[in-house]
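Worked example

This section walks through a single chain of length 1109. The input is the sequence exactly as stored; nothing has been trimmed or padded.
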Amino acid sequence: MPASKAVCSSRALSLALLVACAPLCGAAAQQADTTLWTRLHFRFVGPEGNRAIAAVGEPGNPLVAYIGAASGGVWKTEDGGVHWRPVFDSEPAQAIGALAIAPSAHNVLWAGTGETFFIRSMTALGDGVYRSTDAGRSWQHMGLDSTGRIARIVIDPTNPQIVFVCALGRAYGPAQQRGVYRTADGGKTWTRTLFVDPNTGCSDLAIDPGDPNTLFAGMWQFEVKTWHLQSGGPGSGLWVSRDGGLTWKRLAGRGLPPANHAIGKVAVAVAPSNPNTVYALVEDRDPTLYRSDDRGATWRVMSRNHDLAERAPYYVRFAVAPDDEDRLYFVSVRVTTSRDGGQSLTRIGFNAGGDTHDYWIDPLNPDRMMIAHDGGASITLTGGKNWTRIILPIAQMYHVATDTRVPYNLYGNRQDGSSYRMPSRSLGGGISEGQWGHVGGCESGFAIPDTVDNNTVWSGCYDGGLEVYDVRTDQSRNVRVWPEAGYGWRPADLKYRWNWTFPIAISPHDHTKVYVGSQVVHVTTDGGTSWRAISPDLTRNDTTHQQTSGGVTTDNLMTFDGATLFAIAESPVKAGVIWVGSNDGRVNVTQDGGAHWTDVGGNIPKLSPWAKIKNIEPSHFDAGTAYLSADLHELDDLNPYIFKTADFGKTWKLISATLPRSALSFVHVVSEDPVRRGLLFAGTENGLYVTFDDGAAWLPLQTNLPHAPVSWVTVQPHFHDLVVSTYGRGFYILDDISPLEQLNAAALASIVTVFAPPPAYRFRDRQGITDAPNSAVQAENGPTGVPITYYVSAVLADTFSSATNTPGATCPPATPPAAAAAPGDSARRPKPAKLVILDAQGDTVRVLQGERKLGFNRVCWDLRYSSPATPKLRTSPPGRAFVRVGADGTRPLVTWDLDLSVRGPLVVPGTYTVRIAVQGMDTTAAPATASQSITLLKDPNTTGTDADVQAQGKLARTIRTEQDSIARMINRLEWVRKQVRDLTTQLRDSALVADSGAKRLAALADTLERRIIRVEAGLFDVNLTGAREDAFRNPMQLYGRLAALQSDMAENGADFAPTTQQIAVHDALAQRLADLSTRFAELMTKTVPAFGAELRKTPLRDVIYTSFQ
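Given that input, the structure is written out below as tokens.
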């Protein structure tokens, strides 16, 4: 069907029971990918990131470089690494396995997606290769969608149209898409020129820079299941092509392992300075480096040092210096280098990175190098003498939890990092890295705060590691269920089998009751001092899934342990109803706290017996209802699976049929909104989705969220924030999803609707923590005040602009900037939406303006009254004619202590109303209106009483009125003074200089200006030039002193009542204002009119111009 009809059909399904298709299809003018909530904005809140696995720089240009994140996209610098920005966020795959720049055309950049460094289940997939011909500004998908993982891309050094792709494959089973691919037309068509077998893919690729017809390929037999990693087999080996990659020949023997000797991952490199020299690093029982000095004809062993590749599937990569065939660099746990062809190794310091994956050397400047590693990347311009660490916002977070503080905190575990606790927003100016703290545990699993005592945090780690962290003391206690280390052991030989991310859950009915899962469910009620099992083995307990993992080299670290529990959750509706899921497809439920268990997994249709039950979400509304997400991608089934039961698991139905099908559509989490039945959220390998009808239809909720894997989703109940954990770009928050919770047929049938926001807090600013200004990890703070969200229908929507709706800011400015209009267009451009804030008495507090795009629009009210009038000076200071006014004829009044006080004062807690009016193009017709109540609460973090807040607010409003009065007096005085100054200039013109009447008027004008200045001088320092610290040259006057008092009392005084001294000073200033107001009135009602009368009498009135006439 046509795209517009398809969109309308999808929306009609998704909003079933809310609205019929017709009203939505009336909005068919929207682009096909536009939804009601396109303008809503996800904000990144941290933490700092970690894993990068590809690095490349523009040869010969130290300013330009690119980093490929493991699951966080492509990042570019154009200033040598000082600043970095993402350039790949709009693409559906964010796992970057390979980057390459064409040696003969540096604007041509290729990205291969899907990670190939593999020791964990969460190793992100890709969807083929992408090409940019403009240095990363735009990208085009060039196919190879089903290759899964790209290990290397090699571009012909003389012809950028010839490209080779080293495809490992998805690695979850036999696949025909593995091997080496070649294109001669820039990616329009591809030919697979090397294919070993369905179990073997490409792990590395190298080209002879002097002879592009010679290429070497490392081939890797590799397969992963939930319960096992198998690296190595007869398919692994080294291959060579002598005809430009058209045909290939296997190299075995003659110094290399014989073809019947099973090896694992293979890396290969040609020495650029001497292409006769070729190296191969091979995963074997001992990692082995081979060298050939005859272009691959014969080989010899150079080293079997384990530093070459400590856990081979995660490493096995190296580089050869472009100017020295004996200088090598190996990436592994530590970076090592050799100056003798690999015979001896020297470790490079940790500043170069740890757990390293890629090593790039500038072919035109060997001193310039980059390393991609699990802490980000490192750059050197000094040949490795010094390294600069690059940290990007590419954190791989496993889960996210929130506490009940106001504002609340986020918790989670970061791969290759630690557990984190961080604020959802900061009251100190912004969220800085100094506000992020660790809370026990380690890189994997869960970090969950006690639901009652938020000072207690439960944090997990691999091998069953578990700690209870005390936020107050910054100390943790290890409370592992069974503290017997299992490193290196077969799971079958252990008392308890623990998943890499074993489940932790706190009872919603009794916060002292904490559950964890091995193959059984354990519970503690004494803070982890003791544990008891409340279930039998709830897995399939298949012993064949509990054997040694690794393949050629053993690797037992709980990352591929089968027959373990993966999900535990207790019903928030009924205590004792506990759901448990395993990583081998079993689902169990107990209704009596663990005394009896029922296996209900067999009731789930279309569920593989070996599925990983990623999470179970008990309903917030019914004890017998639960939602379940199942992940089968490690069985090579990439389809999305979400199920629902409403009868304690007796029956289930699939509710994910309308989620998209792609290589990246498998599901990691399903979450239910705690307010609205049927409102669910699903996180997949590359996106976030929402359904309003219990899964009958799903829609993307992506807006500006990068397409990294969404690993966890939760709704913070008080603030109604949607909190998202991504495995590749950290934590994100969509502030206030009340519009999604309240969306209904009535709202969509209306012309304009305002949604009720949750109760807001009158937060007061605090002292902040300084952040690193040039850091690439810049968290976005929460909106100030109340986000007001309103819906505008197609009838009144601003469709004038040709620009499509794009994600807005967290909270757009209350007065949106005017869009540029062509001549004659302004009359047709609709006016902004007008929002009026009223207090409980119906008095106007603030008038705001907002956008009127189709669908949801959002404006933030900062909880302040309108600002006082702004003084605008129109003349130079006396004796300083060099001080000029601006293009608008004015200059600002700049003095000390005005920064905060020129804002309107904060309103006090209470009930307010927002009334919106949207005017149609027919300005004679009444505007469409809607209104909504706003509840404002006192900041719970302050010690001031309600009476204190009221007293402070009252005085602040009084001072605001006085500031406004002064500003208006200044503006009137400056207007008159400017006219007098202009008149004086005319009267002293050479043509009138001898006229006695002109001399007399000039003298009168001088006198008037002096009198004006004397009044002004009591209101403000007339000597101010615009330089801020001019305030210290002369005494501050009334306007500045009132501003300073307002700043001290209301802006910096938190929620305290005014002091006796503040009241006394204000009383004195108020009396001074009264005196000056009298002088001002006399001047404006007597002196100025008298001068005007004199002016009108003069015969010169016909030859001079002044508005006094």
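What to look for: Residues 1-34, 802-806, 816-824 have pLDDT under 50 and may be disordered.
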